[in-house]
Amino acid sequence: MAAENCPVRFGIIGCSRLAKKVTRAILLSPATTLHAISSASPEEAKQFAVANELPETVRICSSHEEVVDDPDVDAVFVPVPVGQHSRWGVAVAEKKKHLLMEKPGAVDLGELDKVLEACERNGVQFMDATMWLHHPRTAKMKELISDPKLVGNIGLIQTTSTAFIPRQFFETAVPAGKPAMETMGALGELGWYGIGAVLWAKDFHLPSSVTALPDITKSSTGVILSCSAQLHYEQDNTVGIVHCSFLSHLTMELEIVGVNGSLYLGDFILPYKEQSAEFNFTWMAKFVERDLGWNVKPEKVEVVNEVSQEVLMVEEFARLVQGIKAGSPPDVKWAEICRKTQLVLDSVMKSIEIGCTCVTL
């Protein structure tokens, strides 16, 4: 069998909760196989292997270096804490292994650029693990918002990403409670999706300016627990509103409002069901005579997919890796998307630091 047709052999460094979904996706996809894992300790890695029913062929390594150095590993998934992304992202690229990085990209744009430069210099594929972008529902929504006769010019994009986590966790947890490692808190963990959704809806054009709103809550250690931001597109006056919080129950809402129609879904990051997803589409809505009701109800659009968005993500990543083996260059689209998301996230952080004033991009 030609090398470019063989399954992409993954290593995983960091057996955190975040690693479970991608591990499952790697095992489910015929395009990938799991070769090696490591964690903070060999015992943790063994426990992860048992809990996730990993095949006995998966190598349990004593250190992250052992995974990165393994000549039989083609690509590495890196779900370590964000403060370690730059170190391990560069290390993976320097070993000429392809890099699937947990989001957010890094602690800031400068650190992310070190990773992206190493990937470019070594000719390896980079992708961050923003899974919802790979779901066929996302492509269907893009089809509708790109048609000027349907949604039309977009005036408003709103996202809400929340998940309740007790405050005590951020006072004591390591590394989540340490600002040097995880200062971004909810902004990095949840706001990344909202910022990415606004950019996605605007074809990844950057906003003219970013302003954090003065509803910021931080832990005693400085971790952002809740915040909101406005992204403004001056050219066509589109406004993006992003809210993220660890202080509210689970929500994943996205609303896109145009001059002719609108889209709404309550599960844009992770669909309610694994093998189908839906959204509401409303077109040319107005009040009926004497304002006694509406002329239309939202239409429910369902998109069925054979496999989960996580599997689709690793299969797209594997397809790009196989293409590189066959002589194609890495696809820079994913690095560009990650970099733009990081740039806007950094701008929100800067706005927070300077008293919620406007930051021009």
Structure keywords:
Rossmann fold, globular, 24% strand, 2 domains, alpha/beta, Dihydrodipicolinate Reductase, domain 2, six-stranded parallel β-sheet, 361 residues, ten-stranded mixed β-sheet
Q: What separation lies between the terminal Cα atoms?
A: 49 Å
Indicate the proportion of strand residues: 15-25%
State the helicity in percent bands: 25-40%
Structural class: alpha/beta
Corresponding CATH architecture of the largest domain: 2-Layer Sandwich
Count of alpha/pi helices: 11
Number of domains: 2
CATH hierarchy, class of the largest domain: Alpha Beta
Q: What pattern of helices and strands is seen along the backbone?
A: EHEHEHEHEHEHEHHHEEEEEEEEHHE
| pLDDT averaged residue by residue | 94
| Fourth CATH level, the homologous superfamily of the largest domain | Dihydrodipicolinate Reductase, domain 2
Annotation, overall tally of beta strands: 16
Q: Report on the biggest sheet.
A: 10 strands, mixed
Query: What multimeric state do the chains show?
Result: single chain
Shape: globular
User: What is the CATH T-level topology of the largest domain?
Assistant: Dihydrodipicolinate Reductase, domain 2
Spans of 5+ residues with little confidence (pLDDT < 50)?
none
Account of the 3D structure:
This protein has helices spanning 19-28, 42-51, 64-69, 85-94, 109-122, 136-145, 167-172, 179-182, 186-201, 309-325, 333-353, and strands spanning 8-13, 32-38, 59-60, 75-78, 98-101, 126-128, 154-162, 209-212, 217-218, 224-233, 238-245, 251-258, 261-265, 276-283, 299-304, 359-360. It has 361 residues and is of the alpha/beta class. Strands 7, 8, 9, 10, 11, 12, 13, 14, 15 and 16 form a ten-stranded mixed β-sheet that branches. A six-stranded parallel β-sheet has the order 3-2-1-4-5-6, with helices on both faces. Strand 4, helix 4 and strand 5 (98-101) form a beta-alpha-beta unit. Helix 4 (85-94) packs parallel to helix 5 (109-122), helix 5 (109-122) packs antiparallel against helix 11 (333-353) and helix 9 packs across helix 11 (333-353). The termini are far apart.
